[in-house]
Amino acid sequence: MASPISVYNSNAMDTHISSASRESLKMELLADVSLLPGEERITDKDIIYICPFSGAVKGKVLITNYRLYFKSSDTDVMVTLDVPLGAISRVEKMGGASSRGENSYGLDITCKDMRNLRFALKQEGHSRRDIFELLFRHAFPVSHGLPLFAYVSQEKYGDNGWNIYKPIEEFRRQGLPNNKWRITFINKNYELCDTYPTVLAVPFKSKEEDLRRVATFRSRGRIPVLSWIHRENQAVIIRCSQPLVGMSGKRNKDDERYLELIREANNTTKLTIYDARPNVNAVANKATGGGYEGDEYQNAELIFLDIQNIHVMRESLKKLKDIVYPNVEESHWLSSLESTHWLEHVKLVLSGAIQVADKVSSGNSVVVHCSDGWDRTAQLTALAMLMLDSHYRTLRGFQVLIEKEWISFGHKFASRIGHGDKNHADQDRSPIFVQFIDCVWQMTKQFPTAFEFNERLLLMILDHLYSCRFGTFLYNCESARDQHDLRSKTVSLWSLVNGKMDIYLNPFYTPESGRVLYPVASMRHLELWVTYYIRWNPRIRQQQQSPVEQRYKELLALRDEYLKKLEELQLSDSSPSSRLTNSPTPNTSTPSQQYAHLQTPF
């Protein structure tokens, strides 16, 4: 298998500019920076960018309350950097007053999005101290008592993205409530569980008091609740956290009875409990009061999915970054990639989701949990739902899926990403959501016609996971978002997306409502997502829109044009003057109805 890398001649990347325009270029250097509404300039400075691909590049850096922007003044190499401050993980001083090497005195910036930046400054006055302090203050506003940019932004959009997900409407779409499942508002004030949403679906036969008793036996009070129900066979996906069994092997009759109610709802012979953790980790969790369901849970089977914890995933992505940035490890590419274990982890997550989807598709209800039910659990439930339900494979449906399974159910975005927080070594940081989006990308590669959205949407979601421009991914749970008036004071990412949907649409999309997708989760079929992980390397040939995709879009536009003309002709045919000369039996079907059966083959 060949390395997924194509190398450009670096000279071809250089843009040469005539000496006549040299002065005007310096004058205009930062004049063309288009600031967002609410974005303010903080400082600008002459600086040298130590580009890992082109060497030292002179230019000017602009720092605002939202971004770091650099533009080169060199005429040999044109370099532009546009980095949201939210993407910065760490800022360090490089070199000291006694540093003598060329460009050895400046700033080192580590980013969350797979790149690092290095700038050199002149050793005079307090040139570095001033820019360091300003950058440090505005890159980590939470650590300095400043608001995140999402609260300062004045952007306005026609579409209100906060309305994309309404829990009651989504449950209705699934056919709930019914005679087996009911909607409860027991958590309306976040008293049952402060990291759960306010609207929950639970077994019809369960009483509110039962839910309170079960909450005492589940980690963080995250009781088993319904995520998705199969319309035909009524099998369900239930999510929760681990039971608090502990070293003494505690039991809770209410919890056991509650899981039995879940099983009885569609007469599943055996309720399958998928514990996302490796067996050894689940056993170790007993020492801290956690654990897993034992033999006392009758009519249930327990399966461990061997997905590693947040710390393993964090180290794995770090290793991946080491082999792709700044330079791609060419000589031993495959062995280097394998040593990161990143694709192996992606495989295990996908494999677990396939098992969940397959079990539900065959009519058996499942319970999914990890330790606290907000990391691996969200990956598994969301991916299984994506495989089972074609609605979530539409552009708007995918937004609902993220809002529902990740945001409303309390994936700890603030802790995992560290929005505006200077503590880069925080052990709570982990790329769990990035890994989920990677799994989605793997599915879009294997099923190119099954998703209404394209890769651009996935890249844009990950960029704004860090940017802090929108409120969508801020905070750890709904209760914290309510406390900070998130919906009234910030803009949703989906407002931007749904305002220009065309650029996120997949031209190959073919709706198939009943189709269950089973991706192949083997190492031979998984790929490294080059357009995300290695996109900062200018020598990597970016996977531009394929000629086939471009041609397909042109054909679709042509078809729409012909249909429009046909409609106009039919309208003119049915006008009063033409009816005098035409046949008395008009054709009432529209062109789109006449041609509904036509599909451009691919």
Automatic annotation (TrEMBL):
Q: Where in the sequence does UniProt note compositional bias of the Polar residues kind?
A: 593-602
Q: Where is the composition biased (Low complexity)?
A: 573-592
Give the protein name, as stated in the record: Myotubularin
Catalytic center residues: C370
Q: Which UniProt keywords apply?
A: Cell membrane, Cell projection, Cytoplasm, Endosome, Hydrolase, Lipid metabolism, Membrane, Protein phosphatase
Q: What is its EC number?
A: 3.1.3.95
Residues at which substrate binds:
N309, I310, C370, S371, D372, G373, W374, D375, R376
SUPFAM superfamilies given in the database record: (Phosphotyrosine protein) phosphatases II, PH domain-like
Q: Does the keyword Glycosyltransferase apply?
A: no
> Corresponding gene?
mtm1
The transmembrane residues are none
- Asked if Calcium is a keyword of the record, the answer is no
Annotated region Disordered: where?
573-602
